């Protein structure tokens, strides 16, 4: 879009103007994406929203072409995937892009979320923007889980069996829910069919929620690494060309790294067991989910004891969903008036500890619970590490964050973005002096 907006809101000339005066999509794009004022101090972590948008489109496109060759039937699914790999023109590329794409989609979404946590982007007035993000995360998880079942390999089948069975822990209605999910009395053809139908549908739901996410973003404006609101035009730049260029560079780097895996190590994130066709009578020795589910899987397994009257299995399921539930209420758990961790000396440390905790949870989720953590200390097992890291996860959100809001003494905030960017130092004003006011 090169042309500017005219006084009636129309854009450009000729056909564009004709369309725009009837359906103002061009002037909308101009206003919301080209002229949109964004803080001038974004760092590279602000690239991930654009990267995620690209990944969502890539996943939908490759998925649609895969679906043209895939057969959702227990007797044919595995072979249809092999056929895609061997006989369909560029089928291998489509499949490897889609499978590795899921991994890179999750890498990007986790970086995007931790960015939000570090810089306090979930705080007012962006609470709803954050919560829509958590809805997207849940939808992404459901989509990825059902997609993994489709190739009908051993891990597809057994992963689906283990995870769907979790719902049986729900009192009274649990078994009926599982029967409904399965469409029968075990994971079988009806299960594969409904998972295929939903796996096709959910990305479009995600697309819808992403639109709401971005609308919410454009109402509040973006946060930035300092967490202070722009005070005027001196603190912002138009999105185009500044951030369209920066986003393009970031995207190119990200896609290059992904391409390295797609072309040179396409099965790096895969599970060898899934190259064996599903066999309901042969249980694999270790049933592990994909890496991006491992921290949640670790939390599920770490609650292997009853909590009061709640049975261990149900408690594990509740803890697993609770791990995402705490993210929903995060804006209200963190009471500190300062957004960015740059100015929060204690929070900054606990942020890094939480990140480490999540990585260890991922490690725990991928190991058998009875294994020793260190070769020399057989008494210290993976399950013990799971207890500690699960405890810390909830302790961080439910206890530490509310307390930090009371006891932490933040550093002084800069008066404005320009002042900090141009090296004017900080104002010396108390950090708690209305740090989250609107510009
Ligand atoms: C398909 C997945 C997603 C897409 C396409 C997406 C897209 C975007 C885009 C384009 C932006 C603006 C650019 C940027 O700040 O990076 C953004 C910002 C944001 N997103 Fe997402 N997002 C997704 C998932 C999530 C998730 C899972 C969360 C959190 C749970 C989240 C939380 C946020 C927040 C808090 C902001 C505002 C950041 C700021 O201004 O500092 N998003 N998102």
The H-level CATH homologous superfamily of the largest domain, spelled out, is: Cytochrome Bc1 Complex, Chain C
Uncertain ranges: 1-9, 425-439
Structural class: mainly alpha
The CATH class of the largest domain, by name, is: Mainly Alpha
> How many distinct folded domains?
2
- CATH topology call of the largest domain: Cytochrome Bc1 Complex, Chain C
Count of individual helical segments: 16
Radius of gyration: 24 Å
Oligomer: single chain
Helical proportion? 55-70%
As laid out across the biggest beta sheet, the strand order is 1-2
Question: What can you tell me about this protein's structure?
Answer:
This protein is mainly alpha-helical and 439 residues long. It folds into 2 domains: 240 residues, Up-down Bundle (Cytochrome Bc1 Complex, Chain C); 121 residues, no CATH class. It contains 16 helices and 4 strands. The strands form 2 sheets. It has a two-stranded antiparallel sheet with strand order 1-2. Strands 3-4 form a two-stranded antiparallel sheet. The protein binds protoporphyrin IX containing FE. The site of protoporphyrin IX containing FE has 28 residues, from helix 3, helix 5, helix 6 and helix 9.
């Amino acid at each position: 879009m090169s042309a500017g907006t005219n006084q009636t809101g129309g854009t450009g000339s000729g056909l564009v103007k004709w369309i725009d005066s009837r359906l103002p999509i061009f002037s909308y794009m101009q206003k919301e994406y080209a002229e949109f004022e964004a803080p001038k101090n974004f760092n590279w972590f602000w690239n991930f929203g654009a990267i995620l948008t690209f990944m969502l489109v890539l996943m939908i496109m490759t998925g649609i072409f895969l679906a043209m060759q895939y057969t959702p039937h227990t007797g044919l699914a595995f072979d249809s995937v092999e056929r895609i790999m061997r006989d369909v023109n560029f089928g291998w590329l489509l499949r490897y892009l889609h499978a590795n794409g899921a991994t890179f989609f999750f890498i990007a979404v986790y970086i995007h979320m931790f960015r939000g946590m570090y810089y306090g982007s979930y705080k007012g007035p962006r609470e709803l923007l954050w919560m829509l993000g958590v809805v997207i995360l849940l939808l992404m998880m459901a989509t990825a889980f059902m997609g993994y079942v489709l190739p009908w390999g051993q891990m597809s089948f057994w992963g689906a069996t283990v995870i769907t069975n979790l719902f049986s822990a729900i009192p009274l209605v649990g078994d009926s829910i599982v029967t409904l999910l399965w469409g029968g009395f075990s994971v079988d053809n009806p299960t594969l069919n409904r998972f295929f139908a939903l796996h096709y549908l959910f990305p479009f739901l995600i697309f819808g929620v992403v639109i709401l996410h971005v609308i919410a973003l454009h109402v509040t404006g973006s946060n930035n690494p300092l967490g202070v609101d722009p005070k005027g035009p001196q603190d912002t730049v138009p999105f185009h060309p500044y951030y369209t260029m920066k986003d393009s560079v970031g995207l190119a780097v990200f896609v290059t790294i992904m391409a390295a895996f797609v072309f040179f190590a396409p099965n790096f994130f895969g599970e060898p067991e899934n190259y064996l066709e599903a066999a309901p009578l042969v249980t694999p020795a270790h049933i592990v989910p994909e890496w991006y589910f491992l921290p949640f899987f670790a939390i599920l397994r770490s609650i292997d004891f009853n909590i009061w009257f709640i049975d261990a299995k149900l408690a594990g399921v509740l803890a697993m969903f609770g791990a995402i539930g705490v993210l929903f209420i995060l804006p209200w758990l963190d009471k500190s008036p300062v957004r960015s961790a740059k100015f929060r000396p204690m929070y900054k440390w606990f942020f890094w500890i939480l990140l480490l905790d999540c990585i260890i949870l991922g490690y725990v989720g991928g190991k058998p619970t009875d294994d020793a953590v260190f070769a020399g200390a057989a008494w210290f097992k993976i399950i013990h590490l799971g207890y500690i890291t699960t405890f810390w996860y909830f302790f961080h959100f439910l206890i530490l964050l509310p307390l930090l809001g009371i006891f932490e003494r933040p550093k002084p905030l800069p008066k404005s973005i320009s002042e900090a960017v141009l090296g004017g130092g900080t104002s010396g004003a108390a950090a708690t002096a209305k740090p989250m006011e609107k510009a």
